[in-house]
Design a protein that fits this description.
InterPro entries: FAD-bd_PCMH (IPR016166), FAD-bd_PCMH-like_sf (IPR036318), FAD-bd_PCMH_sub1 (IPR016167), FAD-bd_PCMH_sub2 (IPR016169), FAD-linked_Oxase-like_C (IPR016164), FAD-linked_Oxidoreductase (IPR050416), Oxid_FAD_bind_N (IPR006094), Oxy_OxRdtase_FAD_BS (IPR006093). Its cofactor is FAD. Belongs to the oxygen-dependent FAD-linked oxidoreductase family. This protein is an alpha+beta fold. Helices cover about 30% and strands about 25% of the residues. The chain has 16 helices and 19 strands. The strands form four sheets. Strands 12, 13, 14, 15, 16, 17, 18 and 19 form an eight-stranded antiparallel β-sheet that branches. Helix 8 packs across helix 11 and helix 11 packs antiparallel against helix 13. The protein is globular, with a radius of gyration of 22 Å. The protein starts with a helix and ends with a helix.
């Protein structure tokens, strides 16, 4: 239980926020407290002192001012889908932007402005009215803010780059309470840091994105292969990635067959290898030819490839990662995928604790690698692959087993990595110190200087230390 002094400090902070915010202020006594502190990952159980549910940028300015006066630990919530649950903190202030949902699309300028509480599904819905996209993640419920600030791997990244590569500008409230616009022309250091530097820079309230012609339909590969051929399929897939054009973004998953009505019931939840790819252009004969090597990896269980609406592609896996279930994800970047690495992956995948757990390998290069290595804070432009070990489960009794499997598989893959890690798939708080250099690489020192310049008293320092 909080001490009398702590309770008094909390009351003072709550009263300060209620006197100045237009949005809702939710303290421990509020009937909606438990719902408001919950995030997508059911493994996260944190109890903040107060949640400032901001209605707009002016509320964010007031929340930052209150934090400066009362000095609680601060966390920032956008769409709320981030695996490590950094959106919420214990016994501190959550600056909650999840209800800031404005989106404006300017098709003639091929640009979109979106507030920080928007999810990728919500943004895609608006941009696809005009046959335009900005590269997002692979789950429609993911928030645009956290994914973009950490870099943003996605289905069309080899064609259009990372999510952060399409940022034209962003609005951010810094620790001094100023509302700043960061772009290549203004606050250029902040703009550099926000594209891949993760958390701890301030409170980003909106993003302006470049948009690219794609959709409404896209050509995709989705081929299910029998698990007993896993090593063979992985080797063939790896070889096919070497010659994939930039218009093709391949990935491969060691997972379980989904319980989809389109798939025979006897296959549901059985282990398989899923080869996927997306073509970042018109779904015509050129797409068919470019995607062919990703379909021709050997005799399949099922070939579900074809043409689908882009919004359907982006939401196709969302149901497999429902709110409230338990997740732990940790990844490596790798320059190569050797035969020994493949054997190690298949060995550890065979020990998966649940059907919901998976191993996924994403292919970088293309537009990702064309950005200069020091042009943004994202430190892994030269990597060919990202290998992510993703534990998913429902039963709290499996917490230790599932997390131990993911950590052990990650350790087993360490000899095959480039030493780099992706901040959005970087474990939990206890992994932060170990992975800090791996996440930011040679950019870490510059990031620290920029954070210190905008936040000399360390108001957002706890957020900067989280994965």
């Amino acid at each position: 239980m909080p001490s009398e002094q702590t309770e008094a400090q909390e009351r003072a902070l709550v009263e300060r926020l209620r006197s100045s915010l237009r949005g809702e202020v939710i303290d421990r006594r509020h009937p909606g407290y438990d719902e408001a502190r919950a995030v997508w990952n059911g493994l996260i159980e944190r109890r903040p002192s107060v949640i400032a549910r901001c209605a707009g940028t002016a509320d964010v300015v007031e929340a930052v001012a209150a934090a400066r006066e009362h000095r609680p630990v601060v966390s920032i919530r956008g769409g709320g889908h981030q695996v490590a649950g950094s959106a919420v903190c214990d016994d501190g202030l959550v600056i909650d932007l999840s209800h800031m949902k404005g989106v404006h699309v300017d098709p003639s300028a091929r640009a979109a402005r979106a507030q920080a509480g928007v999810t990728w599904g919500e943004l895609d819905r608006e941009t696809q009215l005009h046959g335009l996209v900005t590269p997002g993640g692979e789950i429609s419920a993911t928030g645009i803010a956290g994914l973009t600030l950490g870099g943003g791997l996605g289905f069309v990244m080899r064609t259009f780059g990372l999510s952060c590569d399409s940022v034209r500008s962003l609005e951010i409230v810094t620790a001094d309470g100023k509302v700043r616009t960061a772009s290549r022309e203004e606050e250029s250091d902040m703009f550099w840091a926000a594209r891949g530097g993760g958390r701890g820079l301030g409170v980003v309230t909106s993003f302006e994105f470049d948009l690219h012609p794609l959709g409404p339909d896209v050509a995709v590969v989705l081929v299910l292969h029998p698990y007993e051929r896993a090593e063979e399929v992985l080797r063939a897939w790896r070889d096919a990635t070497y010659t994939a054009p930039d218009t093709v973004t391949p990935e491969i998953l060691l997972w379980s067959v989904p319980a989809d009505p389109a798939i025979p019931q006897q296959l549901h939840r059985s282990n398989c290898v899923m080869a996927g790819a997306v073509y970042g252009g018109p779904p015509d004969d050129g797409a068919t030819a470019a995607l062919a090597p990703q379909r021709e990896l050997g005799p399949p269980l099922m070939d579900l490839s074809g043409t689908v609406p882009y919004v359907m592609l982006q939401s196709a896996n969302t149901w497999r990662f429902p709110d409230g279930e338990r997740y732990f994800m940790k990844s490596h970047f790798a320059e190569e995928l050797t035969d020994e690495a493949i054997r190690t992956l298949v060995d550890w995948d065979s020990r998966r604790p649940t059907p919901e757990s998976l191993i996924v390998i994403r292919t970088l290069g293309g537009a990702v690698a064309r950005v200069g290595p020091d042009d943004s804070a994202f430190a892994h432009r030269s990597a060919r692959y990202n290998v992510s070990i993703d534990a998913g489960w429902q039963d709290p009794a499996l917490d230790e087993t599932a997390i131990r499997w993911a950590r052990s598989a990650w350790e087993a893959m360490k000899p095959f990595s480039s030493g780099g890690a992706y901040v959005n798939f970087a474990g939990f708080g206890e992994d932060a110190s170990e992975l800090r250099g791996a996440v930011f690489g040679s950019h870490e020192e510059r990031l620290e200087r920029i954070r210190a310049a905008y936040d000399p008293e360390g108001l957002f320092a706890p957020a900067a230390r989280r994965p």
